[in-house]
């Protein structure tokens, strides 16, 4: 997995073009990273996946190229280019590439200050 520094500000870009596919890899390009959350572009080669996990925050996923499988609490959702889903906080989830795809992942780390775990 490759992770770059935050993306350059005040520069116009085409989101699907800022990240490339790498064979047998998941590549992450950080667009914004703050203590309150982050936005990343991610490319998955066919057969790659993020291992099942839970997050203390909601995660917004938008497919920007290809098709993704997002599994939330064992329920599979198949997303295509332009489709989005919100992975709820504290829910088991996994993201799989049955074929190559690119997505934007947005995590907002606020609004949970009153939640005590």
Instruction: State the secondary-structure class.
Output: mainly beta
Poorly predicted regions are none
Number of domain modules: 1
Radius of gyration: 14 Å
Quickly count the helices.
0
CATH H-level superfamily title: Jelly Rolls
How far is it from the N-terminal to the C-terminal residue, by CA?
A: 30 Å
Strand content: over 45%
Descriptive account of the structure:
The chain is mainly β. It has one domain: Jelly Rolls (Sandwich). Helix content is 0%, strand content 51%. It has no helices and nine strands. Strands 1, 2, 3, 4, 5, 6, 7, 8 and 9 form a nine-stranded mixed β-sheet that branches. The chain is globular and about 40 Å long. The protein starts with a strand and ends in a 9-residue tail after the last strand. The model has no long low-confidence stretch (mean pLDDT 91).
Give the structure's gist in a few sentences.
With 117 residues, this protein is mainly beta.
Fill in the keyword field for this structure:
mainly beta, 51% strand, nine-stranded mixed beta sheet, Jelly Rolls
Topology:
Layout: E1 2-3, E2 26-34, E3 37-44, E4 49-53, E5 59-72, E6 75-80, E7 84-87, E8 93-96, E9 101-108
Parallel strand pairs: 1-2
Antiparallel strand pairs: 2-3, 3-9, 4-8, 5-6, 5-7, 5-8, 5-9
